[in-house]
Write a structure and sequence with these properties.
Helix content is 78%, strand content 0%. By secondary structure, the protein is mainly alpha-helical. One of its GO terms (molecular function) is double-stranded DNA binding.
Amino acid sequence: MSEGFKEELAKELGFYDVVQKEGWGGIKARDAGNMVKRAVEIAQQNLLEQK
């Protein structure tokens, strides 16, 4: 994932403030999992739209 995409996901999921203060290592495992889950959802949606 690009840095910009990760930042957008963090903003959407509501923990970008933690990333700004503590870096990516400061986020909770649950937030990281939710970020990956959302990235997969977006990728699947993009694939469906391309068909």
